[in-house]
Amino acid sequence: MIDWSQCPEVERNAAKVSGAWLFKGTRVPVKALFENIEGGATVDQFLEWFPGVRRSQVDGVLEHAQRSLETA
To answer: How does pLDDT run across 13-26, given as a tens digit for each residue?
Structure first.
């Protein structure tokens, strides 16, 4: 399991979206990125569909996930 607490691009607040990990400053769950990619969407499509999320945030989340999987 990925430790999102070490990723500076995300935040968690029990009062927002049931405490899910969110892209910082948004109400967009990190999970939505992975679900959309798994469904065949590109990062550009995801950014178009979720305009509050910045490319740098997506890049940071993907890099964090990759590093986490490499050390697992």
So the answer is: 999 999 999 999 99
